[in-house]
Every structure is written in C-alpha cells, then in structure tokens.
C-alpha cells in the first residue's frame, strides 16, 4: 500500500505481531487525505507477504521488507517510521542501519528498545510484567527453520476481543479475527540477544516519540520501557486500546501529522 510521491511527508507504517499492513487502513486513508505519502508494509510471512512462516529464518529476514523500503528511499527523503507493538523492534533495527534517512521514529503502544541492551529484553519484560493470563486463548505453534525448532504465536479471538481491540469498532475486531496469522517472536535469534546491536551513534541518534495508549492493558509495561531510554518524548492518546489505529485513528493520525511537521 503506497501513496503518491508528491505528498509532503513519507510515513512508513509497521504492524505488530500476527498483523499486517491491513490494520493501518484507517490511518493510511486519513494521512493520504491530508496530502502525505504513506507506505504500510507487510513484514515477511505477514499479511499478504508470500513467504511461509517456516521460510523466515531470522528476525532480520522478518524485518527485511522494512529494511528494503528504507534503503530504497530516494536520497534526501527523510522518513517517519511508525511501529506498533512488536513492530517497534523492527523499526529499531532500521534506525540502527539507516539513521541518516529517518527524521523521527514513532513507537505506538510499542516495544521500545534501548541502547546497551539486547532487543529481546523487551519481549522478556512483557512476559515478566504483564498479567499471567495475558495471552488467554492465543496458540503456540511449533515451527522449524534454519535456526532449528521454534515456536510461533497466533493471537486468539478472545485475546483480540479482550486485550487487543476492546474499545475498537466491532468491524475492526472481526477484521482482525479473519486476518491474523502466526508470527515467530525469534526468541533464540542471535540478533535478539546481541547487547551491542543498538548503538548511541546510530539508533540513539534518531529522534524517538512514544505514543501511550491509555486504555491498553500493557500501558504500565510500556511506561517502564520508556524509563530505560531517557530523552524519549511521550504523547498520550486517551481512550485508546492496544489497537490504537482502530480505536482512535483520528487522534493517532493527527498526532503523526504533528510529529511529522515538527521533525522535518
């Protein structure tokens, strides 16, 4: 899903676990209606991306569609990366690789990595600090790839209804139930365990803004992540559940446009 190259800003939107570019449909429409260029990506084996989950052998391969999009952006074009939930880890990888191309990164109810700690610490923190029954009816699915046996997660319909989309329109919950697909969290991937992956010179040099969904069950976990990265800007979206792009699309779109204008 791509917009016109004549628009004034270029937003690249990255989905979270088990989702795809489809979840951004409202925000894409709103930003484009205001003249911005928008690219909503399917990460590998997500949405309508053609790869099967067992063909995606690493977190880097999973994030490759984003890395390719940033690498291919025209010289001089400064991007606004937007990551939702687990998508925060993928945009962090792109920030480390291409800091000069990114005007600002926006973490929407997202995993927020910090310099000096491996990015896998974020899923670890969520498992540690989130309520023990957080995943409800989500399923763990055995997979095999080049790194050996692993596990993918498929978010269950009760989880989506109670934890992901409780304040979102019923149509958006139905859409999510129809379209979610299994995703690996790559817990054993060396990239996820590398304390030196994110550097102050690259990742740390990119402006970061965190958008807090104030009705998200993971709100306090996100707040704790932010304390690990001093200097990160924080904005709050009242009445937003975890699926911010569905529960509060207008507020999210307006905030993204405001942030884009601030960081030219």
From TrEMBL:
Residues 12-254 form the AB hydrolase-1 domain. Pfam families: Abhydrolase_6. GO terms for molecular function: methyl indole-3-acetate esterase activity; methyl jasmonate esterase activity; methyl salicylate esterase activity. It comes from the Eukaryota. One of its GO terms (biological process) is jasmonic acid metabolic process. InterPro entries: AB_hydrolase_1, AB_hydrolase_fold, MES/HNL. This is AB hydrolase-1 domain-containing protein. It comes from Oryza sativa subsp. indica (Rice).
């Amino acid at each position: 899903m791509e917009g016109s190259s004549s628009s004034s800003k270029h937003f690249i939107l990255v989905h979270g676990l088990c989702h795809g570019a489809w979840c951004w449909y409202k925000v894409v429409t709103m930003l484009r209606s205001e003249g911005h260029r928008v690219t909503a990506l399917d990460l590998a084996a997500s949405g309508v991306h053609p790869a099967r989950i067992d063909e995606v052998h690493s977190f880097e391969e999973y994030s490759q569609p984003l890395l390719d999009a940033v690498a291919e952006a025209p010289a001089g074009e400064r991007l606004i990366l937007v990551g939702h939930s687990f998508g925060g880890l993928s945009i962090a990888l792109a920030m480390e690789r291409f800091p000069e191309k990114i005007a600002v990164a926006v973490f929407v109810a997202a995993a927020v990595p910090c310099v000096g700690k491996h990015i896998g610490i974020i899923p670890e923190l969520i498992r540690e600090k989130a309520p023990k029954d957080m995943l409800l009816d989500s399923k763990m699915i055995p997979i095999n790839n080049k790194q050996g046996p692993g596990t993918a997660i498929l978010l269950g319909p009760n989880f989506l209804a109670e934890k992901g989309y409780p304040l979102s329109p019923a149509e958006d919950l139905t859409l999510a139930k129809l379209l979610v697909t299994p995703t690996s969290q790559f817990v054993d991937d060396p990239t996820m365990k590398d304390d030196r992956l994110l550097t102050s010179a690259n990742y740390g040099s990119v402006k970061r803004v965190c958008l807090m969904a104030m009705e998200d069950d993971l709100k306090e976990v996100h707040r704790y992540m932010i304390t690990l990265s001093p200097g990160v800007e924080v904005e709050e979206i009242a009445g937003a559940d975890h699926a911010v792009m569905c529960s509060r699309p207008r507020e999210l779109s307006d905030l993204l446009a405001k942030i884009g204008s601030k960081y030219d």
